[in-house]
## 1
Amino acid sequence: MEYRRLGRSGVKVSEISLGSWLTYGGSVAEERARACIHRAYELGINFFDTANVYMRGVAEEIVGRALKGFARDSYFLATKVYFPMGEGPNDRGLSRKHITEQCHASLKRLGVDYVDLYQCHRYDEGTPIEETLRALEDLVRQGKVLYVGVSEWTADQIADALRLAKEMNLDRIVSNQPRYNMIQRHIEAEIIPLCEREGVGQVVFSPLAQGVLTGKYRPEEVPERGTRAADPESNRFMQQLMNEEVLSAVDRLRPLASDAGLSISQFALAWILRQENVSSAIIGASRPEQVEDNAKAAGVRLSADVVSEIDGILEDVIASS
């Protein structure tokens, strides 16, 4: 496993990290989730990502139990806050009340005294950003949170938060968690350039485009039973990718991946890791074998010619994504 600094901070995280969105506590039973997490740890993955909203806290509980046997200082644990966790008017968002209460609830579910990275899961238009930043600063000062990050914020929102943190002498954002893969590249225009200047690292989710970039889905073939695309619940996140044009383009990547001695998944992850601003790529896994395959992408470097060939193959589907 290779490691990178999280943005401009001093902490190092594994290039490949393991997440729990749409998996642990849901479609993947706890015993198998534990096997995946333990295998990841054995392979040198030290970054584990979850969120309070994933299965309304169940994912945090499963991740916490799976990591319980490992020394706390040997892994980097991240969770998030923003989405509704109840029916009350204050059970959502980034108010001081919700952030504080949900941080305490997450710590309890995870079974730890602190989280390494606490992320604002989305931007809250209804709460002054100064309130959000001060609440996060308090948690840092209390030792319950070590680093602060955001997820799916725009470049302007990230820039405003960084400016205010500097003006108010508050702890600054060290990471952003956006969707990013070969097909969905929206962060390249504004977010990556800003974050490179400001020392904010990308911790990207959906690096395999919900499984489309694993090669398991083929043009003109019905998704196999048990796959994410065959599940009505998780399929809603990948509908724009499950079309003949995208699947045919991905199919044309096979020879390039083969020539590089990589699986398509490894090839797609290596493409992401070509970006120096990317600190880690978060994979999802339902079996330990998937973790093993994806972890092999760490340290792989694609040549400029190969990257150019990828762009040529995917040109039309990138434009329509």
## 2
Amino acid sequence: MEVTLENTGKKYLHNWIFRGLNKQFLAPHHYGILGNNGSGKTTLLKIISGYLTPTEGKISWKLENQILSETLFSYIGWASPHLELIEEFTMEEIFLFHQKFKNWLPEVDTQSLIQLSGLRKNADKPLKYYSSGMKQRVKLILAVMSNVRMVILDEPCTNLDEDSVQWYKDLIEEFAGNRLFIIGSNDKENECFSCTDFITLSK
């Protein structure tokens, strides 16, 4: 997977969030997008995902020399604190529902994902009864364990306690494979521990 930003900028109303970004993201590397709250990290991640279009410049996605556009969503896993889960579903139900749109990594099934979550005793409860940290674990599994070529994580350790932060690190170390990871964060040590290349945004 290859993502290329060329002189990319985004503004809301009359205010530029960022301008003139030139960057190439290549699998299997991990990239961190750093910055304080309000610096534009989430906006940039949404542009990289294809959810938003840049105000100026361009972005392109390429997989094995094939340009991606309308099918882009099927190659991306996404987790964000702003992502809404279907809270009437149990964890098992949301995993089964997700599988209708994206396959899991090889040799992974619903039961193994429930075990991996560390939340087996809550597997039959609707997600609306989960704590914010438990919901974040579910979101991370949906993103990381999908059989996609690019994983985008926006502040992945939000609401995670110390044990769950280590769980997140173990998840990335074991299952990242040779995929492209792009992680937005203001916690370089924990959330971007696997990253070797960075963009820093400022207000």
